[in-house]
Specification:
Elements: E1 2-7, H1 17-29, E2 32-36, H2 43-51, E3 55-59, H3 62-69, E4 78-80, H4 81-90, E5 97-100, H5 105-112, H6 114-129, E6 133-138, E7 157-162, E8 170-174, H7 179-188, E9 195-200, H8 203-215, E10 220-223, H9 234-241, E11 250-253, E12 268-274, H10 284-290, E13 300-304, H11 310-323, H12 327-337, H13 344-365, E14 378-381, E15 384-387, H14 389-404, E16 419-423, E17 426-428, E18 431-433, H15 435-451, E19 454-455, H16 458-469, H17 477-488, E20 490-497, E21 500-507, E22 525-534, E23 539-549, H18 555-560
Helix pairs in contact: 4-6, 5-6, 7-8, 12-14, 13-14
């Protein structure tokens, strides 16, 4: 593959006439060309205006095809992989060029929709048979090498456009971000007349989040490929794919929206990319696509700190054991050398061997899947299973990305931003809470331990905590107390009274009250005074032996105050 690099000196490709001429000359001289250029520099506009009616665009999704066709002049320019073959077959004399837009998405289709790859093969082979020029376009080519056996090795020429683009301002990086905390953050950053957009690749989850936000009075839409034609969502979906403004406080979408769909709103303040720590339902490639979706503003980005999956950690441990070296040596090599690391073949072969063994077992026993293994690791042809090599290479690539981002400041190797802000959530019991709520829970437990307050049921304690922190306490109190017992030196006590259990918090060891309040004692506490006899002076010396709540005060009063 030959490579020609151009530096874009204008805002858009079509504004540089010499560049357009050079690019078209390369395309006409090649059978297959790859165009790599940042989002927002006008790749699609170049195709429309320079190649014109002789060109046909194959989009990976219907939504993207609709957006390309939304311009009156280009209503029949694009279609999907599923429909492309018949259109080209019936109009063979009309097209000199076929463009596979957002071609990196074929890697995703290899993982969850292999029938789309089969549609690609039909169009690809037809174009070669008819001597139609093939053009691949993407802004994120990092994973295309995974498609070596599909088309990547046959590309003649790569046109690389270099241009400065910064899509986001600040980046908020969370150690964890579950559904409840995501709702908390969306409410926290809500501002009048501004919109937030979140990509969460789970239809049930976005609908649940939408319901919770609507109860808080926000104007929200949750749109997935499964529900976008519903009465509530159809008009919003059409506005999105037709480049129109949408009037919402929060837009929640699944992965259909990260494939070239542009948001024209100028009031997008925050965007979220929530795919779990190991990015098991996404990758840094899709993240880099996602940040460029707002085209007329520079929002703040919210992401989760990626980390290796349990299986990838096992693979690393296995290589460490085989080579008798340290894990840090392997990680350093992968971070520094990427795909050129000496350990890549070994990691790849280990993954291949594992899935080949599973494929053999499935074929032998004629079962339709291996327990605990995702189907996307296998391709089924005539009732036989074969290892999906694209997925193996893709997982290795993702492993390298995640290792690089163990130092989150390496994120600037992937895209530009102004600063990184780390946001830490604390695990207490089975809950994830903010640092402020973590302190509040410990404060409440501390008061209960100091004052000896007893409560008639664990539900009452849960309700107290929920009221205090503004977040539902959904874990067992015993588990919650155990998670901080070492730090606070407390335990949950229970006793029976009149046939019912009464609960309280107590210190494991006797505590010194002076250790807790060096300054002014809170107004809701009353000190308990005892005396020690001083044998030298022959007098009783008073001291604080403990605390109790003042008359008229309850734990609920303290929380409300």
């Amino acid at each position: 593959m030959e490579v020609q690099t151009f530096k874009l000196v204008t805002n858009y490709i079509t504004e540089d006439k010499e560049l357009c001429i050079d690019m078209k000359s390369i395309i006409d001289a090649s059978n297959q060309t790859l165009i790599v250029a940042p989002q927002g520099v006008g790749k699609t506009t170049f195709i429309k205006e320079v190649l014109g009616d002789e060109c046909y665009v194959i989009s990976p999704t219907r939504a993207l095809a609709n957006q390309i066709n939304s311009h009156d002049k280009y209503q029949d320019l694009a279609t999907t992989l599923m429909c492309g073959y018949d259109t080209i077959k019936e109009n063979t004399e009309d097209y000199s060029y076929v463009v596979f837009d957002e071609c990196h998405y074929l890697v995703n289709y290899c993982s969850f929709a292999y029938n789309q790859v089969e549609h690609f093969y039909k169009i690809y082979d037809l174009c070669k048979e008819l001597d139609i020029k093939i053009i691949f376009m993407t802004a994120t080519p990092q994973t295309l090498y995974c498609l070596e056996d599909i088309f990547y090795s046959e590309i003649d020429y790569k046109i690389e456009i270099q241009a400065h683009r910064q899509y986001v301002d600040k980046v908020y990086v969370y150690n964890e971000l579950n559904q409840e905390l995501l709702v908390h953050e969306l409410l926290n950053y809500h501002r009048q007349d501004y919109m937030q957009v979140a990509l969460i690749n789970d239809t049930a989850k976005i609908v649940s989040i939408s319901d919770k936000l609507k109860k808080e009075g926000l104007k929200v839409a949750a749109i997935s490929s499964k529900n976008r034609n519903s009465d509530d969502n159809l008009s919003i979906f059409r506005n999105l794919t037709n480049n129109r403004y949408i009037d919402l406080d929060v837009l929640l979408v699944t992965s259909w929206a990260d494939v070239g769909i542009n948001f024209i709103n100028k009031n997008i303040s925050h965007i979220y990319y929530e795919c779990g720590n190991s990015y098991e339902r996404g990758s840094l490639t899709s993240l880099m696509q996602w940040i460029a979706r707002p085209r007329h503003c520079k929002p703040d980005l919210h992401i989760v700190q990626p980390k290796l999956s349990k299986y990838d950690e096992e693979i690393l441990e296995s290589v460490v054991k085989d080579l008798n070296i340290t894990e840090s040596q392997i990680v350093t090599s992968l971070v520094d050398n990427g795909l050129q690391s000496e350990f890549i073949p070994l990691l790849t072969n280990k993954k291949m061997d594992r899935y080949q063994e599973l494929a053999d077992k499935m074929n032998q026993y004629q079962i339709d899947r291996a327990i605990g293994i995702e189907n996307n690791h296998f391709i089924q042809i005539r009732n036989l299973f074969f290892v999906n090599k694209v997925m193996i290479h893709y997982e290795i690539h993702r492993m390298i990305d995640i290792l690089v981002l163990q130092n989150i400041y390496n994120l600037n190797q992937y895209f530009e931003f102004s600063k990184i802000i780390k946001v830490k959530f604390y695990e207490i019991g089975s809950m994830l809470v903010t640092e402020e709520n973590y302190r509040k829970i410990k404060h409440l437990l501390d008061i209960m331990a100091k004052t000896g307050q007893e409560i008639k049921s664990q539900k009452v304690i849960k309700d107290l905590i929920s009221s205090y922190i503004g977040q539902k306490c959904n874990c067992q109190i015993s588990r919650l107390v155990n998670s901080v017992s070492d730090e606070m030196d407390i335990t949950l006590k229970a006793r029976k009274s009149h046939g019912r259990r009464i609960y309280g918090i107590e210190y494991v060891e006797e505590y010194n009250p002076y250790d807790y309040y060096s300054g002014e004692i809170p107004s809701y506490l009353e000190t308990e005074i005892e005396c020690d006899y001083d044998i030298h002076d022959g007098v009783n010396v008073p001291y604080i032996s403990g605390y109790h709540l003042k008359d008229g005060y309850s734990l609920e009063d303290i929380i409300q105050s």
